[in-house]
Amino acid sequence: MSIGAVLAFLRDDFPEVTISKIRFLEAEGLVEPQRTPSGYRKFSPADVERLAYVLRMQRDHYLPLRVIREHLDAIERGESPPALPSAADARPGPLEEADRELVASADASAGVRLGRAELLAAAGAGERDLAEWEAYGLLAPGPDGGYDGEALQVARLVAELGRYGLEPRHLRAMKAAADREIALVEQVVAPLRRHRNPQTRAHAEATARELATLSVRLHAAMVQAGLRTHG
What we know:
With 231 residues, the chain is mostly helical.
């Protein structure tokens, strides 16, 4: 099957899946489709079954890719995979819900370009709000004066936090922390991005996304732990 046919097949059960998601799982080594002489991917029924397993474990049990890979490795060895968490343990908390919403929003907004008025309408904000967000460095337009999907996500989240009384000046610490996390990720992936091998460069992008997700989870876990301590 071609990657387009695989996408159409999987979307019956996993409507949120995208071609970029399938390519990401390939870059992470969770599936290894064959390649035609011209470089096109060809997925076998076993490949499609693996993809469905990965997506199901993420959706139903919120397992990270590392754990899902261990499950697949055990199955390939003819062993029983590790026991799945109970329904109570698997229920997503605020951290997991935020992570899933972020991924879904990123997939949906891929390739989006918005003008200033469109961004304001989508975020439910006013011109004065946007000017203040930009003044505090929370987001900025691209070289063409437009805004991408990530800027829209930031705008919506900043607007939502504003409804709780958190102003842009309060969010500068979050922006500074994000900048430091970006620098750490870049330290890891920069050597991979400079590599001549296209597959290595593709792995760099997959690694950057995975590190970003882990960074978000760590930050949220620390905040939750701190709030619990003071509760």
